[in-house]
Amino acid sequence: MLKAQKDAHFSDELAEIESPEIREFEELINNWEASTKKVVNELSKRKENLLKDKSPNSLIALGAMEVHLNMALQALNAFNKGVDG
């Protein structure tokens, strides 16, 4: 019985230690997600001033970046589903 109490106390201490790190990580991820969604939204609008005077290779690179950002957002969504349930 004494061992169970120690384990519970240890778990509480561990949770307190991890909580600031977890909160910091979640804040970083939330900020990244919001920023990434803004970038993807701007890219998807295909504003002329963004694409003006760009070389074909630059446009291909920009398209690849957009695809990778969308995949990263999908990966984050899958990660969040795994955390929640």
Question: What keywords describe this structure?
Answer:
85 residues; mainly alpha; Putative MATH domain
Could you please describe the fold and organization of this structure?
This protein has 85 residues and is an all-alpha fold. The protein has one domain. Helix content is 91%, strand content 0%. It has three helices and no strands. The protein has helices at 2-45, 48-51, 56-84. The longest helix has 44 residues, at 2-45. The mean pLDDT is 83.
Give the topology.
Layout: H1 2-45, H2 48-51, H3 56-84
Helix pairs in contact: 1-3
Protein name: Putative MATH domain
Organism: Prochlorococcus marinus str. GP2
Helix and strand string, N-terminal first?
HHH
**Unreliable stretches:** none
Strand content: under 5%
Tally of distinct domains:
1
Protein name: Putative MATH domain
Characterize this entry briefly:
91% of the residues lie in helices and 0% in strands.
